[in-house]
Amino acid sequence: MDDIIFGELLGKLLYLSNQKKSSLAKSLGYDISYISKWINSKNLPSSKNANAICREISNFIVNSLTESTSNDIVKYFEIDIKENEDKREYLLNIIEKYLKKSYLSATGNINKGSMLQETYTQERYNSTNYVNPRLRKKFLAEDVIGYVEKNEKLDILICADVFHVPMEDKIALALSNQELNNIERENNLSIKFLTGFKYDKEDVLVNAMVILSMVSSYYKMDFEIYNCDVAHSIGAFIVKNKLSYFGVFRPDGASLLTNISKEKEAVNEFYYSVESLLKSQGNLIYNKKSSIDIIKDTTYMQYIMGHDPRWLIGNINELFMPEDLFLEIAESIFGYDEDIMNKLRKINIFLHNLTYKSGLKVLIYESELNKYISSGELSFFNIPVTLTFKQREKHIRHLEKVFKESTDIDIRIIDGKVVEDFKNEENTSMFLSKDIKLIKMNIQKEKHQYAIATDDDFKNMCDDLFDSMWNIEENLICKDKSYILDRISKAIAYMNIINEKI
Predict the structure, then answer these.
(1) Is 378 helix (H, G, I), strand (E, B) or coil?
(2) Longest Cα–Cα distance in the chain
(3) How many helices (H) and strands (E) does the chain have?
């Protein structure tokens, strides 16, 4: 902080307070070109007026602060304001003090021969550089949420190689849906995410779970992921007409340069250049379809009739149901539509006469089985329903019967979380065959959607994930069929005990 020069400090103060150079120029009574030259160290206020200008800048900054931007200023200067102190007066004094100090530093060391020449007009250049990843993430999150809360329509482009960023950033990308999905006006968000699909198969569990988490979780908004070859060492985040971020990183993920701009013309030039890359090289990795659509257009039928069927069951669903229970639930949900019911009758027949008698591999989370036994919450074609004790028992007993009698079904139980960092996330469900890959999106009351893989690299990733989980270490995956059947038998006994007590 002691070495910061006047122009750099002024630029940061404007950014932290969310103010424009034009507003400061108007407040000071100066032409905007003067403010621009101060920030770019092209020129400085005259020594005669320096004290007054520092004081007036401090007043302008403090008077513009909100509670949020005020806290950002406090954190930036790393100050501790006591409860009995006047926060406004304290900030006025501290900002004025540092402005004067940075001015003296600049006038004592300035070398006009080494100054950067301005290559953009003021209308085209207005950005502030930071090399502070923590600060970057905070500002981006607050800016986006601030725009959404104003009910503004946002078009966002994100460009990053998710497979080559540090684990902290991978988890942040995977879990940021929790914040975005809590925004009431999420329908105002349109987000396009560009990433490459060149990954190390040794890390496929983490890498695939990051992508699948985003695919299955961003159900409330217009969110799309594109397979696009992007550089490992850069990241970009652009909100059309609002702001842009560009970062350059070392191989270990440390930030070398962070550039943030709110100049509309510069932001949009960046936005359209990335959008052009998306259109020319990007490949949308999945399409969304509703439960009704995948039943009506026979997508589901094509899957269960396909070769090499595999199931990763993240929540208990319509599979392994006795025929009469399947139709009973179908009638309660879709009884109003005879066309859907006819399709479901065919699906039911094929499940029992073909799929359950094929070389099927099934991975199921034991935690989800236990949750189903306790709550009765089931996903029927991604539509949430709650079954009675009697219905649950009938379902689990049939599942036990199928596993006992079939020599063609290989089932394994997942005991715990495959990737511990995702312990707060819902378990993803995938239904894979040679040609069709279906991913269930998180269940909601209004939207019951599936993501259907369209990109070959994404399809391969889904296969790699299943294979890696299927062959994972013994302490996480139970492969002993007799032991699994014993667990299911005990689960039924436990269900009966609970039923009797109730």
Answers:
(1) strand
(2) 94
(3) 19, 18
Helix (H) or strand (E) holding 286: strand 286-290
- Enumerate long-range contacts of 442-447, CB under 8 Å, 24 or more apart: 442/216, 442/217, 442/219, 443/315, 443/379, 443/382, 443/383, 443/384, 444/219, 444/220, 445/384, 447/219, 447/220, 447/290
**Helix, strand, coil share (%) of the chain residues, nearest 5:** 50, 20, 30
Phi, psi of 410 (to 5 degrees): -110, 115
The whole-angstrom separation of Cα 291 and Cα 306 is 19
Q: Which range, of 179-183, 269-273, 283-287, 378-382, averages the lowest pLDDT?
A: 179-183
The DSSP string of 175-197 is HTHHHHTT-TTGGGEEEEEEE--
- The H-or-E segment that residue 439 falls in is strand 437-440
Tell me: the pLDDT tens digits for 321-379?
999 999 999 999 999 999 999 999 999 999 998 888 888 999 999 888 888 888 889 99
At residue 308, φ and ψ (nearest 5 deg) are: 55, 55
- The tokens describing 459, both together, are 């399809």
Q: Which amino acid is at 136?
A: R
Of 457, 452, 448, give the one whose Cα is nearest residue 438: 452
Residue 302 backbone class (left: φ over 0; alpha: ψ -120 to 50; beta: rest): alpha
207: left (phi over 0), alpha (psi -120 to 50) or beta: alpha
Decide: 343 and 298 in contact? Cβ < 8 Å: yes
